[in-house]
Amino acid sequence: MARRRRPRIVGGNPRCPVAGLGGLALLAFLVAGCGTSATPTASPSRAPVATPQPVATSIATPVPTPTASPSRSLPTFDAARVRLRLERVVDGLEAPLSIANAGDGSGRLFVVEQAGRIRVVSDGRLETTPFLDIRDRIEAGGERGLLGLAFHPDFPADPRLFVDYTDRNGNTVVSSFAVPDATPGRADPESERVLLRVEQPYPNHNGGALAFGPDGDLYIATGDGGSAGDPHGNGQDLDTLLGKLLRIRVGAADGSGPPYAIPPDAPFATDPRARPEIRAYGLRNPWRFSFDRLTGDLWIGDVGQDSWEEVDRLSASAPPGIAPNFGWSVMEGDHCFGATSCREAGLVRPVAEYGHDQGCSITGGFVARDPAQPLLYGGYLFADYCSGRIWAIDAAWPEPREPVLLLDSGHAISSFGEDEAGSVHLTDLASGELLRIVATPR
Question: What's CA 69's distance to the chain center, in Å?
């Protein structure tokens, strides 16, 4: 495959790549996580749309480093044996930045476009009619737009999909939409039910990824609210939803009852000092997270500030009633942020990091679990948006590890996703392509 031109760097700030498309492709600022001098709006909202229903009494304490997942007889991932190539599935997408499958046996892939459309890829073909079009309610451009998608785990018996987007006021909205029986190939844009709103003080660091966990709950990634250096201290503030990984239990499909509840074992279910939706904190701009479909471990790519990009991991065996603190803005990666020393006690260290000599903005990926790709099996794949490099680490190794470079792709990699079989795909923001990762022996 011919190498593509990498995003150029403008000005003197290596945090601000531009994909070269103009308009919507200013999403490059999103994955770069650049600082901004924009005047902040009001402080982030402290209340979601509906009052959550706490159903537990556990209160969190500082968390130790998560333990390793239980030992399993799995194939051993060896990055030294792997060479990657990328196969184009489709092109013609407009600023693609998220990929999902519905888990319904259809084999379809759903690609999120920043402007507010969800496109369907079926049998290697990009369908003309969008699966959902909500451009009329979205502020798109820069780091804003339609940012995340997740289907209900019982889809289509529960015919809902859930999205994360930026509304016309610049704030984060998490909503559900339904697929009517009469039009099973399309979601109804008028069926929206808002679960959560979070006010944003700045236009950057919106996070936006969504995924249902093995527990059946919906996980939501939020950035620290933007600017640079977390000026409001949101990463460490437990009284805001910004800079967090959230976990909620979605309400009934028929709309009866509240939009969501707090899971029984939530860390802050009854703690008045903290938001009960919080599952983890200390995040800057978690641009893409995923669950290992085999182990249930959760993997996060958290975009750094000036020097370090990091991979964080929350083991499936970690106590659900304790909220891990991934360190921002005390630390950036495995390093004290803006200081020679800092208080590191109780912080969960990243399992991998790389410096800005290798790139400038991490795109979190997936643990490969496609049996048809045995060379990749058990490797956590991730990339850098600016450099186009793709790395892997052995997902089974419990200690921090050095990423292994598998491909210098030249692509502006904005997101990863997997199909129903576990084959890992990625999107190129600049070229509008959906590509499949294929491993060959080295």
Answer: 21
What is d(CA 228, CA 344) in angstroms, rounded to the nearest whole number? 21
The pLDDT tens digits of the residues spanning 40-83 come to: 333 333 444 444 444 333 333 333 344 444 444 556 899 999 99
For the chain, report the end-to-end CA distance as a whole number of angstroms: 17
Output the CA torsion sign for 123, 161, 363, 433: positive
Task: Tell me 62's DSSP state.
Answer: P
Exposure of 343 by Cβ count < 10 A (0-12 exposed, 13-18 middle, 19+ buried)? exposed
Which of 298, 301, 341, 293 shows the shortest CA–CA distance to 317?
298
What does the domain layout of the chain look like in residue ranges? 8-35+75-441
Q: Which fold has domain 8-35+75-441?
A: Neuraminidase (2.120.10)
pLDDT digits (tens, 9 = 90+) for 131-186: 999 999 999 998 999 999 999 999 999 999 999 999 999 999 999 999 998 788 99
> Can you give the three-state secondary structure of 132-188, one letter per residue?
EECHHHCCCECCECEEEEEECCCCCCCCEEEEEEECCCCCEEEEEEECCCCCCCCCE
Reported as a pLDDT band with limits 50, 70 and 90, residue 345 is very high
Whether 324 and 276 have beta carbons less than 8 Å apart is answered as no
Q: What is the DSSP string of 275-301?
A: -TTEEEE--S-EEEEEE-TTT--EEEE
Q: Are 199 and 44 in contact (CB under 8 A)?
A: yes
Question: 335 has which bridge partners?
Answer: 332
Residue 256, Cβ density class (10 Å: 0-12 exposed, 13-18 middle, ≥19 buried):
exposed
